[in-house]
Structure formats: structure tokens, C-alpha cells
Amino acid sequence: MTLYTPLSRRFELRYDLPIISSSKGSTNDYHTAAGDLTITPRVILSESQDLTQSFGVAFRTPTGNDTNGNGIAAITPGYEFWSNPWDKLVVRGGATMAVPYSHDSFSQSGARNTFEAHKMFDQIDFH
């Protein structure tokens, strides 16, 4: 479940709460439990008719169950963009860097720094 709280035209809070998270364990059986709550303040850096850029810092709280890869605290700064270079194409993408922190040792949780870059073509309509 994702909820948004707009505080102004350029600033909002995003709440991500995986109510049920299910993943396959080492014994090939599934573990189902609650996921980690993530709160992300986001700000729009620039906005035009054809391009929007935003920046956010996600704060992942260790509220989920560690049996399915949750229970990890992390700070994840991220850049996102939305572009409409011409009428028939919409492109979205961004980059994030997850930096875990925890009162448990990293060897117990398995948490590691990660970098992710993504892009997605929303609509390509050649008709």
C-alpha cells in the first residue's frame, strides 16, 4: 500500500507499507509476513511541460519480519525523472543508493549497500 501526503505543490511525503510480503526460502517453501515501512520525503527539483525531476530520501524502518528479507533499516537517497520527449512516448527512470544501518551486525541481517538505476517506457503508440 502506498499513500501520499502532499504538503505543498513541490513537497510531499510518501508512505510505503507492504502489508504482506512473501518470498521463497532456502527450503523452497514460502515465508509470508509483514514488510518494512518506508517513509520518503520527496521534493520536485524542476518541472516543465516535457520533463519533471524529483529527489527523495527514503527511510526504511525495520518493522517487517526478517524471515523474508525484511527487518532492515536503511536510508535511500534517490533521483527520479519523468519525460515526454514527444507526443507518443513517456519515459520514467531514476537512480537510488540504499545505505543500510542497523543495531544488529550486517552479517546477521545480510544487508549491503546497493545502487539501482531504472528506466521504463510507459507508452509507445505508433498509431
Outline: elongated
Sequence stretches where pLDDT stays below 50 over 5 or more residues: none
Counted by DSSP, the helix tally is 1
Main-sheet strand order equals 1-2-5-6-7-8-9
SSE sequence, one letter per element: EEEEEEEEHE
Distance between the termini: 35 Å
Rg to the nearest angstrom? 17 Å
Structural class: mainly beta
Average of the residue pLDDT scores: 81
Q: Roughly what fraction of the amino acids lie in strands?
A: over 45%
Main sheet: strands, sense, barrel = 7 strands, antiparallel
In total, the number of strands is 9
Helicity range of the residues? Answer: under 10%
Compact description:
This protein has 127 residues and is mainly beta. Helices cover 3% and strands 61% of the residues. A hairpin with a 2-residue loop joins strand 7 (73-86) and strand 8.
SSE layout and pairing:
Blueprint (H helix, E strand, L loop, with lengths): L1 E5 L4 E6 L4 E4 L5 E4 L4 E10 L3 E10 L12 E14 L2 E13 L4 H4 L4 E11 L3
Antiparallel strand pairs: 1-2, 2-5, 3-4, 5-6, 6-7, 7-8, 8-9
